[in-house]
Design a protein that fits this description.
The complex is a heterotrimer of chains A (about 290), B (about 260) and C (about 250). Chain A is α/β, with parallel strands linked by helices. Chain A has ten helices and ten strands. Chain A has two domains: about 160 residues, Rossmann fold (3-Layer(aba) Sandwich), CATH 3.40.50; about 70 residues, no CATH class. Chain A has a six-stranded mixed β-sheet with strand order 6-7-8-3-9-10, sandwiched between helices. In chain A, strands 2-1-4-5 form a four-stranded antiparallel β-sheet. Chain C has two domains: about 40 residues; about 200 residues, MetI-like (MetI-like fold, Orthogonal Bundle). The chains are: A alpha/beta (about 290), B mainly alpha (about 260), C mainly alpha (about 250).
């Protein structure tokens, strides 16, 4: 385990810098010191502060943190949906500003287009890039099948369950063949069982496609189940608190989930998370008290 | 409409820019008018100069004639709204309270709503004569429908919980009406009245233009008959301002009380 | 309440029955002289006049005339209304400046200006269609604007994540998302247009069905006047129902 916060003591700092330099040369995604401060009505809030990490080709990395820790801000920064932020994001060495064709995003909220059926939703990025109708429907069908929705091509999102709609969103993003798959709590709105099953599915797909994936989540089990590495964030302002390598075998089916090693990782990460989550709760309470006094 | 309230929340700089844009648009329209008036592109009488219209407007507002007719029209509208509004309220409550009644009769009200009520005017004349009576009838008929439809829908949207609370405290029928039903329906009732006012104004004025010897509608058609365009523009301006102001006033009353 | 009383068809039947009873009652009262038959004609007479009106007064052709006027007005409203709504959406400062004005336009009794239009365009179809357009324009503009602004933010984010250019974003995300609202606006616009068009036809004694009522009233054809009014009511109900069905058919999925 490596402590990830920059500005650590000098000699250790050098070693870290050296290994990071090595890592960034092969990294698909290289995030350097990103930070973002929002101006609110009552002053300013720093959502994220000096976060740096890399994601290598084929890796599945999760970022986990308590609610309000700035995870979604990290998602928006890397995805290019946020304008001014501190620090730098590089994809394959190339500096990124704005949305990047190599990054595919899957959002937390309902994001399927309600006026298009499943096939047309999934084919959307192909339509944009000018692919012909037959070609793109064929390619879309491939991804529809991959997420397990074969037979539902002509259904409309309103006819599907929440979990199915998120699968459509995933298929749509995958259809654009992104080099990095960036997901923001895609399963947050789903019940636990559906989450577990979908998580399985996502991992299967990731392994098959060797898709580099960065998942933002607040769900501990999910993070450990799916990832090769888990980055733990502190409460606001969000910094990198700890990096945990998950050394569990693949396939990570529900058997692995009930293994000892799994429990060990979960407990370990929970230690850090609990600390940050309690800070979050105390912060909320004091804010409510202050608002009441006014 | 949310526009006005958004504006109050907007920052100073935006509000100033909006004011500039609005003044700009108005200035542009007035300038275009004046140009076409002066150039004689359209018939000079049809598009009189703004100065002429202005004079006519002042003359209109300065004369007793206008106010006498305004009072008459306003009286007709008020009477019509009282009759139409009360009956609309009663029918709306009856329709909204009972599902059977609603299924039997509500479609009549619902489908008669979007019809041009002015076509009933000949019948109104036969029944109530050529004086104020037929105009009041027009206003009543016009006003009835939006109120009834709004109230019926409002009744159905009352949170059942409130009714159960009332019943659990064994409120009497009238207590339920005054303390629960009516307060819960303040918004749909106010909205129905606002729409009702709009159509009552239209109904009354159109009736006056068709057959009358008094009222603001009569003044409009009189100006038309005399081809006094400036006066017609002046009357229309005043009418529109009054109608929009009345609508805004009721709209403000309809807004929920801020905490 | 017993179960047969709950049935919806029973309710409808009761409604129809009530109507029949009321008409029969009116018939009786008139025949008894309680109601003056020169003010309210016998319902049976009114019903008898209907086929006569159809045959002699070219009802079908008049209906078609009115329908054409409504269709022209609706077309113009759709083109201008949706474009202006989109324009207001795009140009924020215009939207802030003009939105409440459009709301005021919706509340203003436009049709009162019909003498003005008479002067401008004479007793013609242009006058009628022009008033129809102005009367129905406001809801289309407002609903288009509303639909566009209500587009869920995440859908715009999806568009941005796929790097859509502004016109793609508009055509493929904003517009489809706003379509249900736009259709509501078009339905409202169509209804307002129709109401005002028939009204103006009556007032200026020109055009289709509205004019028929006027004519029959001036001829003191009592049953005919009532009958013509029934026709107009039927027509407006027809328009209303068609508009509702059109809206449902065109915006199914959402």
């Amino acid at each position: 385990m490596i402590s990830g916060s920059p500005g650590a003591s000098a000699p250790a700092g050098e070693a870290i810098a050296a290994s990071r330099a090595a890592a960034s040369r092969d990294a698909l995604l290289d995030v350097r010191g990103i930070g973002k401060t929002f101006q609110t009505g009552e002053g300013s809030t720093t959502a994220v502060e000096a976060m740096s990490f890399t994601v290598s080709e084929g890796e599945f990395v999760s970022i986990i943190g308590p609610s309000g820790c700035g995870k979604s801000t990290v998602f928006n920064i890397i995805g290019g949906l946020v304008a001014d932020y501190r620090g730098e994001v590089r994809v394959s060495g190339e500096k990124v500003s704005g949305t990047h064709p190599a990054i595919g995003m899957v959002f937390q909220e309902e994001s399927t287009f309600p006026w298009r059926n499943v096939a047309d939703n999934v084919a959307f990025p192909l339509e944009i890039s000018g692919m012909s109708k037959t070609a793109r429907l064929e390619r879309a069908a491939h991804f529809v099948e991959m997420v397990g929705l074969r037979g539902f091509e002509r259904h409309y999102p309103s006819q599907l369950s929440g979990g199915m709609r998120q699968r459509v969103a995933l298929a749509r993003t995958l259809a654009s063949s992104p080099r990095l798959l960036l997901m923001d709590e895609p399963f947050a709105a789903l019940d636990e069982q559906t989450r577990l099953l979908l998580g399985d599915k996502v991992l299967q797909i990731q392994q098959t496609l060797r898709q580099t994936t960065l998942l933002i989540t607040h769900n501990l089990t999910e993070a450990v189940q799916l990832s090769d590495r888990v980055l733990v964030m502190t409460y606001r302002p969000g910094r990198l608190k700890r990096v945990v390598d998950i050394d569990l075998p693949h396939p990570r089916d529900s058997e692995v989930v009930s293994s000892d090693a799994f429990g060990h990782y979960v407990a370990q990460i929970w230690q850090d998370l609990r600390e940050e989550a309690s800070r979050g709760i105390r912060d909320d309470e004091s804010r409510v008290l202050q608002a009441g006094r006014r | 409409m949310a526009g006005a309230s958004d504006l109050n929340a907007a920052p100073r700089r935006d509000r100033r820019r909006v004011a500039v844009v609005r003044i700009g648009i108005v200035a542009l329209v007035l300038a275009a008018w004046e140009v076409s008036a002066a150039s004689g592109l359209l018939l000079r009488e049809v598009v009189p100069s703004l100065v002429v219209v202005g004079h006519s407007l002042i003359a209109l507002l300065a004369g007793i004639d206008f106010y006498r007719n305004l009072v008459i029209t306003a009286g007709e509208i008020a009477a019509g709204m009282l009759i139409g509004g009360m009956s609309g309220l009663a029918v709306g409550i009856a329709l909204g309270a009972n599902r059977f009644v609603s299924q039997a009769y509500e479609s009549v009200v619902y489908y008669l709503g979007p019809t041009p009520k002015i076509i009933f005017f000949p019948v109104m004349i036969m029944w109530f004569g050529v004086g104020a009576g037929s105009k009041i009838a027009m206003a009543s008929v016009s006003c009835f429908f939006p109120v009834a439809i709004s109230v019926a829908a409002g009744m159905r949207q009352i949170d059942r919980v409130h009714l159960l609370v009332g019943r659990s405290f064994r409120a009497t029928y009238w207590q339920m009406v005054w303390k629960i039903y009516l307060p819960a329906m303040r918004a749909p009732i106010a909205n129905g009245i606002r729409l009702g006012l709009g159509v009552a104004v239209i109904g009354t004025l159109l009736a006056e233009t068709k057959l009358s010897n008094q009222g603001l509608g009569y003044l409009v058609i009189q100006a038309y008959a005399r081809f006094d365009m400036a006066r017609m523009y002046a009357l229309l301006i005043v009418l529109f301002v009054l109608a929009i102001a009345a609508n805004a006033l009721i709209g403000r009353l309809a807004r929920p009380r801020s905490p | 309440m017993t179960s047969w009383m709950r049935s919806r068809n029973t309710a409808r039947a009761v409604g129809v029955l009530t109507l029949v009873v009321v008409l029969a009652g009116i018939e009786a009262l008139i025949r008894l002289g309680v109601i003056n038959r020169f003010i309210v004609p016998l319902p049976t007479q009114i019903i008898a006049s209907l086929p006569r009106i159809v045959a002699e007064e070219n009802v079908v052709q008049r209906f078609w005339q009115t329908t054409q006027e409504v269709m022209w007005a609706s077309l113009v409203i759709a083109l201008i209304g949706i474009s202006l709504g989109a324009l207001l959406y795009r140009v924020r400062i215009l939207r802030m400046a003009c939105e409440s004005w459009v709301g005021a336009l919706a509340a203003a009794p436009i049709v009162l200006a019909y003498p003005l239009f008479l002067v401008l365009f004479g007793r013609s179809v242009t006058t009628i269609v022009a008033i129809g357009v102005i009367a129905g324009l406001a809801p289309v503009i407002l609903k288009t604007l509303e639909g566009l602004t209500a587009t869920r933010h995440v859908l715009l984010d999806v568009g941005r994540s796929f790097r859509l250019n502004p016109s793609q974003q508009f055509l493929k995300v904003l517009l489809p998302s706003a379509l249900p609202s736009i259709f509501v606006g078009l339905r409202l616009g169509l209804i307002f247009s129709m109401i005002n068009i028939v009204g103006v036809e009556f007032l200026i004694n020109f055009g289709g069905l509205g004019q028929l009522i006027n004519e029959l009233a001036e001829r003191y054809d009592l049953p005919g006047t009532y009958g013509a009014i029934c026709f107009v009511i039927l027509t407006s109900i027809t328009f209303f129902v068609i508009a509702e069905h059109l809206e449902k058919w065109l915006a199914p999925a959402t």
